[in-house]
Every structure is written in structure tokens, then in C-alpha cells.
Amino acid sequence: MEERVHALLEEATRAILSASTTAELEGMETRYLGRKGLVTELLRALPTLPPEQRPRFGQLLNTVKAQLQQQVEQRRLELGQREREERLRAERVDITLPPRPLRVGLKHPLTQTMERVRAALIGLGFEFVDSPELDDYRYNFAALNYPDDHPAMDEQMSFYISDTRLLRTQTTSVQGRVMEKRKPPFRIAVIGRCFRNETVDATHHHTFHQVDAFIVDKGISMADLKGVLAAFARQMFGEDVQVRFRPDFFPFVEPGVDYAIYWQGGWLELGGAGLIHPNILRAHSIDPEQWTGFAFGLGIERIPMIQYQIDDLRLFLENDLRFLQRYGA
Amino acid sequence: MRVPIEWLKEYVPVQAEPEELAHRLTMAGLEVEAIEHDEGEPVLNVKVTPNRGDCLSMVGVAREVAALYGLPLHHPMPSARSTEPGDAVRYATVEIIDDDLCPRYAARVVRQVHIAPSPDWMQKRLIAAGMRPINNVVDVTNYVMLELGQPLHAFDLDLLPNGHIVVRRAKPGEKIVTLDGVERALQPEMLMICDATHPVAVAGVMGGAETEVTPNTRNVLLESAHFNPTSIRRTARRLQLSTEASYRFERVVDPGGVVCALDRACELLEQIGAGEPVPGVVDVYPRPARERVVTLRPDRCNLLLGMDLDTHTMTDCLRRLQLNAELRDGVIHVTVPTFRPDLNIEEDLAEEVGRVYGYENIPERLPFGHTHRGSDSPDTRLIRPLQEAFVRAGLIEVHTHTLRAPGPLDDPTRPLVRVRNAASEELSSLRNSLIPSLMDVVVHNLARRQTEIFLFEVGKVFTVLDGDYDERLKAGFAVTGSVFPPGWDARYPAADFFTAKGIVHILLETVGIEEAQYVSASDPRFHPGRSAKVLVGEREVGLFGELHPHILEQLDITRRTVLAGEFDVYTLWSLATQRVRYVPLPKYPAVLRDLAVVAAEEVPYQQVEQTVRQAGGTLLESVRLFDVYRGERIPEGTRSLALSLTFRSPERTLTDEEVDGIVQQIVQALEGIGARLRA
To answer: Are A44 and A190 within one domain?
Structure first.
């Protein structure tokens, strides 16, 4: 009897180890350890043994059963792992195939630039307001101290809708609108589309975008203007950017300024600025002895053109998807 | 203006290298755009701002250079030599009728003129400065204009009856043939130089062909005058004739230098042997310009510049510019010479001080005092959430043209605003809708073999409304392509009406509009059966749909569906409801029921859903359509709508019996609109 048990153990062990799949292993488990399995049958035969032998054989059979169960479990783990590995190997994909494209929305580079400009100026305390694109001659020129028919308008050829209405040539047109309604001190900014009736080429367009900002407060000087422009330029172009001031002429400022930044080895003009002309303050019942102010403006397109070295202004309104996808975000 | 440095040095002994000189001038406001070369000699290309007409000459630029380098200025004719009429009056007389447009007119006479080429040195300078030599007399007038900034004109004196000059406005119907051979009809507001009967020159713009100096000319009348800048500007523009003379007169020529320029021209003519000037000048100057005194308070100067300069520095800067500056009672009094008409107020003088001292020396400072909180504009607060909604929906933002040619995609209900002075049809009207310009972009990109075009724009559109111009914000989109971008292993159906409706849904949801009605649109730009007006309550907020095939044909778009839509930004937001509020997550389980409802094709889904919701009451949490079936298994002319209903109570777990009861009510209600449960 004992020999039969040992032989069975040996046979079952071999069978379990030789099982090459979990399915085969399950067959072996049924054959030896199942309800009608060989080990189970021997256990069932215990009552037929003489009573004095029963405890020893019982113990032996239980040990063998436990041993086999352990072997089955271990083999199951081994086979399971191997089979999973095989399955994963079979599931492998060519990871160098191109990605599945997703539809990604983007903001236009000009919108992104305007958002950066807004953030910078809001941080400097400017309150943005809205101003119409289809404006009055009065706000666009007359309220800005342009004498009638002055050569300064040569650079601002306008699209006229009627004798008195035109598409604004500069966002500076907001100044008169604000000063009519509000009393200083104020810090105002406006951003938006402007139009000039001129020939389109890589650096000129009849449609473009500008930002204008101005302050009226006590004791505002050219030094404040320089400080604000420098802070603004640093936020837009980086901490070590240098700002240059030189005299220039615009009818709505005196003194007038042209400002530039030093960028990749040269001075790039950004826009015009200056102290608000006392005629403008006076025309809006603001006493220039008590209040002074500055104003500055610049072209929005200029900023991404400098940053990304875009050499053609026309690209912004052409909206070629290949361009937008490169600079959009 | 082209300034040959060799010529400039005749008036100011500047030794600086051209690059250094260019930098200094630029930093002082006279921008040197380029250093060019003419036969190896450096020439500065100076951009003169419109307020500095005095710098449109060699002496004017030399004056700036002298100020910046602290050098002396050698003026070739610092004051007039001819002060009396002398013999000149025997040959020439001048009568100014319209002295509002011509405050001063002076003439000198040169006799025994021998027309010949001018000397080489003069021709070389003229060429270097960008002018073409003609003959000795004309070249001298141009030379003096370039040297002193005063345009001169030479008439053939023998062709002027009695040497009589009349300065007056043109009379109705008058004409003149100008030096360029063009006959020009004159307007009554144009100022003319005339003989006793008719115009012989367009004042300040161009001479007439009739009295032109020719090889036969023996006697010359030289004109030097001061004209009203606005008058010259308008005349030049009306005649579309911009000349070196009109350019200068528009920018104000020194009224005090009128006779100096004549004397200088006569001196040169004599010097080069071109003729014999008659002594004396005919100078009509009824109200001579007076020198102005402008004051500058040193404190004010420092306040404006944000600097701390002493009065000595200020007066020194001003004096260097040939301004007579004196400190009296703590205030700087500046006598402004007639060549600087741009200096009128204290701020102008502060700028001159800053300019000469150097803007680069102004410190940087941040304004203090009143504390301000920066903020976005009201419109930006409406625009940005819409931009972001479109971006979430996978659309790419574009900025398109406001100015367009009228076209079939314009909104037929909104009259176009027309540009009065458009250079071309392409720029002749303001868009009244975003759809036309969005479609321009679609066409542009299709032509570049882009197939997935999902675009949006938020921008201004214009129309005429109640007799005034109306400018408002619209949010628009145009899409064509697949529902999802095609990849290497998957293809998707083409985006259609319902793709567009999905975009619209995101837009409405962003604004906080929960209930909207979709009503058939009757807009000729859209497919009549695949477009909708969107109503919120009674208000129309926008429309969208498939573009009409007829329109696509006109745009040469074939075998493609294009969807577009446009919404009114202000109206959308005015209908927004408070959107974000806390709703607790459900505590009790939901009971789900699916219904397949068969109804005639004509019964709109919206009616079915509303019927279900009304009958379902408060315990019906949601209705979701998950399939639409048409086919053999149901009667022709009907469709089956498969609905998934979710029932839930916030207070308890619903029983099956309860839900079955509600479903029964729903089925009955559906029968009321002719819909049955699918067998």
C-alpha cells in the first residue's frame, strides 16, 4: 500500500510538471485530486484498511495530497505567467506607427498675443475698455489734436464711410471717448482692429491690430512713460530686454517718443508714445497744470513677428491652417 | 530727404563718421533711415517728421547737427541783402489778392540770362540729393530749395505781360497746362499765380508750361513766396500732383527766409555767369510774422521730463538750437525764430531740452500715487468664453477681413455699409456677417489641399440700422471634413448638420442657455432642409446649417458638405441664465427603461421628447435618443426612435411598479401625437 502511494506521488508529480498549459494542468488536477481522482479514491479506501494502519496511511495520504496541491498551484502560477507573457507578446503593436490624430482647437496667434498684452497691462493697473472700429472723424483725428488736413495724416490714410465716419486708423481714438466721460486719475487701455487705406505688402496691411494705453494722473512724466514701457517690454520680450527712447512726432503727444527694443543685435521700433498733448487735456476740461499723462501704442502683429521672426504681415489674416497650427495654442 | 554729407559740411564743420552722425541725428528725432552712397560719397537718407519742415534742407539739418555737436553754423545767407524795391520794380509788379493763402510774395529779376547747363559741382550735388539737373536757372532754384528749404520758381519774364504778377484764387472754369504738359481744370479754392488775365502757375505746386524757362529765355522773374500749408496740401491732393515744392509748403516754409532765398539764388546765378540780377526786390508782405516768445518754467520742464536739470543746462540746450533763451524771474523766455513754427507751447520747449540733452538720459520710473486695479474690457469678458468654447469643440480660430467685396454669402437681411473711397471692389464694403470671410478662409485652405477645416471667429460685423451704422459682435464658424480627423487605420463619416449642432450646443452651454428651439431657417445661403434658426424664448440668437449647394458651386466647392453658423454675442449673453449651482449627487439608484417609439417622419423629434418629458413628470430624470431606425420592419413613412429613459427620485428608491405606471402614462401621451410603441 505504501508503495502504491509513493508510486502515485511520483507519477502525479511528473504529470503536473509536464503539463504545458493551464488547461492540461487542470486535467491533471482532476485526475489526481478531483472528486473522483486517484488520491481521493485512495482516501476513500481507508476504511477498508486494518484499523491500526489507518492513522498512518491517512496521514501519509493527506501529506501527499497537500504536496500535490502545492505543486499544482506552483505550476499554475508558472504556466499562467508564461501564458500571459505569450499573450502580451502577441498583442505587441508597431509603436513607430503614426499617432491617431485628435481634433485640437487653437487660438489664433494674434489672440494669444492680445491675451499676453492684456495680462501685462492689467498687471500694470490698466483698465481695458471697448471702442468702436467704425468711428467718428472727431475721435480719430480732431480730438487727437490733428489740425484739418495735416501732413501727419499722410501715414493714416483712412477708409471713409461718410463725411464724418471712418474706420479708425488707430486705437488712440479711444482717448477722447474716455476723457469725455471720466475724470482723472485713470489708466485706460484698448486693443483692437485698425484700418489704413494703403497698399498691402509684407510689412503693411490695410487691416491690422493695435493696443493703446494711457494714463492721466498727477505728476506723470516721461520717466514714468519710460518705466511703464520698459516693464511692459520686459514682460513681453523677456527680462533683459533694453528699451530705447528717441524723439518722434505725433499730434496727440508733446514731447513725442518713438520707442524700440534691442532684439538679436539691432533696435526694433515698437511704436509711438509721449506725454498727452495739453490741448487734448484742455479740450476735455482737464487742467494740464494739475494733471499730466502719457500715452503709448503699438502694433499687435509686430510682437509675434519679432518673437517668431515672421517676415510677412499678410499671414495673420490669410489664415492658412499650416500657419495657424504652427503658431496657435 | 537725401543729405550728401559733403554738402552738409559746407554749413557745419562736423567731423563725425557717417554712422555716428546718423545715430546722433536719429536719437535726436531726425531719423536716418539709411546711409547710401552716391559715387562713393555718403548720403544720409533722413526721414523728417511732418512737424519739422525746417529740416527739409541742408541748412536745416546742419542746424540740428550744430546743436547736437556744439558746433558753429555757417549760413550762406543769414539775412536778406535786398530790402528795397530798387530797379526791380521797373520790371516786375506783384499784387496779392488772396493774402489769407499767400501772406508773402517776393520777386527779383535777372536780365541778360544765358541758358546753359549748370556747373559740374552744382549738378553733382543735385544728383546726390536726388534731383535731375535741367539748366542753369532751374538748377539754381532747385539748389537753393535744397540748401535753404525755400522753393523758388523762375518765370520767363518776357512772357509775363508787363511783368505783372497777381496772386489769387482760380476762377470758375479756369485751366492751366502745367510744366509736365498736363492740362488741369482748376477749382475755385485753388491758389494761382496769374498774369493780368489768367493763371501762369499753380501756387506752391507747379509752374505753368506757358511761362516756362526755355533756351530762348533772356529775362527771368524769380518767385519766392510763403503759402498757406493747408491750401497747398488740398490743391496738390485735388490735382494729384505732389512736388518737392508742395511737399515743403505743406510742412510750413519759413516766412522770414523768403527774400534770403531770392538773394542767394541771384548770388549763385551771378557767380556761375547765368545772368545779371537787377538790384532790388519786389516784396509784398502786408502783415509780417512776428517773433513769438514762449516761456518755459524750469520746474515744469523737469516735471514733464522726469529729470532734474538745472536752468543753465536748459538754456544751453535751447541756445544750441539757435533759439534766443533768457532766464528772467526764474522763467526761461525763448524768442522763437520764424523758421521754427512748431514751437508754440511750454511742452514744445521741454521736448527741445530733452531732445538736445538726450532722451536716453531720462530715467525709468513706475508711476505712483493713485492705486489702480487693471481689468479686462466688458466685450473681452463676453468674447473669451466663446473663443474657449470653440477651442474645446476642436475648432481653430481665424481673424478674417472686415473689408470685402459684396458677395452671395452676405447676410441678405442686413444692408451693407459701403466704403466711400475704396481703392478696389475687394475693399468696398464692411462685412455684415462672418460667414463670407470665414468661407474665404475655407476656400483658401481647400485650394492648399487641406481637407479638415474647422474654423471659428468672434469679430465685429456692420450694417445700417435705423438710419445709423450698427457695429456688433458675432461668433461664427465654418466646418468641413470628417467627424473625427481621419488617421491611417480609421475613417469617419463627414461632418454634417448634427456636427454643427454639437458645436452650437457647446456654445449655448458655455453661455448658460439651457432651453433652445430649433426652427427651420429660410436663409437663401443655407440648405432649406438642413439649417436652423436658434430661438431662446422668442429671441433669435443665431442660425446654422449646411450651406446651400448653389453657394458651394459658386465657390467651386464640389463633393463636400460645408457647415456654417453665426450667433449674436450680445443677444446670447443677454439670455444667459445663472448656470453654475450646486446640485447634490444622487443618493438613490436610477431605474432605466428603453422605449422604441414609431411615429410618422413628419413628427419632429423635439415634439416626441417634449411629450415624453411632460408625461414623465418630475421622476423622469433624463431622456436620451440612442437610435433612429427606418426600414422594412416598420411601416413606410415612419421612423422608430429608440429612447433610453432614466427615472430617479431624490428621496427614495423607486419600485418597478411605480416606474411601469409612469411608462404607461408616457405611452398614452405618445399615442396622442400619433406615436406608438414599436411591436
So the answer is: no
Contact B327, B366 (CB under 8 A): no
Asked if B295 has any chain A CB less than 8 Å from its own CB, the reply is no
Q: Which helix (H) or strand (E) holds B145?
A: helix B136-148
Chain A nearest CA to B311, separation (Å): 18
The residue-averaged pLDDT of A150-159 equals: 77
Instruction: Identify the architecture of domain B378-574 in CATH.
Output: 2-Layer Sandwich (3.30)
User: What does the alpha-carbon distance between residue B297 and residue B655 come to, in Å, rounded to a whole number?
Assistant: 92
- Range B168-195 average pLDDT: 95
- In tens, the pLDDT along B466-500 reads 989 999 999 999 999 999 999 888 889 999 999 99
Q: What is the value of ipTM here, to two decimals?
A: 0.88
Point out the residue among A193, A215, A275 whose CB comes nearest to the CB of B402.
A193
Minimal-distance CA residue of chain B relative to A255: B351
B216-232 pLDDT, tens per residue?
Answer: 999 999 999 999 999 99
The structural domain count of chain A equals: 2
Interface of B with A in 16-75 (CB under 8 A): 26-29, 31, 49-52
Hey, what CATH class is B88-284 in?
alpha beta
* DSSP letters spanning A94-150: -TTSPPPP----B--HHHHHHHHHHHHHHHTTPEE----SEEEHHHHTGGGTPPTT-
Q: Flag if B441 and A319 touch (Cβ within 8 Å).
A: yes
Distance from B299 to chain A by nearest Cα, in Å?
Answer: 11
Q: Is A98 a member of any domain?
A: no
Q: Does domain B591-677 have CATH number 3.30.70.380?
A: yes
A105–B28 C-beta distance less than 8 A: no
Q: Is residue A185 part of a domain?
A: yes
Q: What is the span of the domain harbouring residue A214? A: 109-327
For the domain with range B293-361, which CATH number is right: 2.40.240.10, 3.30.56.10, 2.40.10.220, 3.20.20.80? 3.30.56.10
Name the residue in chain A with its Cα closest to that of B356: A247
Q: Could you tell me if residue A96 is inside a domain?
A: no
**Looking at CA atoms only, how far is residue B460 from chain A in angstroms?**
8
Cβ separation of B444 and A319 shorter than 8 Å? yes
pTM, two decimal places: 0.87
| DSSP string for residues in B615-672 | HHGGGEEEEEEEEEE-STTS-TTEEEEEEEEEE--SSSPPPHHHHHHHHHHHHHHHHH
Q: Which amino acid is at B453?
A: I
B2-69 has which fold?
Answer: Phenylalanyl-tRNA Synthetase; Chain B, domain 1 (3.30.56)
Cβ-based contacts of A123 with chain B (< 8 Å): 374
Other residues' Cβ atoms within 10 Å of the Cβ of residue B117: 12
